[in-house]
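User: My collaborator sent over this chain with a note saying "see what the structure looks like." That's all I know about it. Can you take a look?
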Amino acid sequence: MSRRTSHPRRPSAARARTAPVAEITAASPCPCGLPAEYGACCGRLHAGAAAQTCEALMRSRYAAFVVRDAAYLLRTWHPGTRPDTLDLDPGTRWERLEILGTTEGSAFHTTGTVTFRAHFRDRGRADSLHEKSRFVRHEGAWVYESAVFAD
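Assistant: Without extra context I'll predict from the sequence alone. Here is the result:
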């Protein structure tokens, strides 16, 4: 996922108020949608374990948006396409990830893609992001390189 900057419009102070993000603990269900606890799934990748597939990296990057881990998102972004900073919009609440398809991206590949739809609420309004993300190996690890938006 490549949401580089916050939403371009600036809401009034009244509209900027949003419900607090539910705290994700190691025992919480993983936001990536797999039937595992966050600590045993994406949480271990956020803590430094390597993703074995580009789909695992995609899921962990989605979970990083949910828990607002900008450092992880930047760390797993290819240095050739990575922005200097990442501004995560506090008005966005990520709700659900659907993996629609993958190509390559296993331990035996050097590239891969993941097509997905990420559902979110932007200041209470339901929306989704439909994207085909490209991943490559960089210095032995999977990293996000680029994306094509499908919608």
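A starting point for your reply to your collaborator: The chain has a mean pLDDT of 88.
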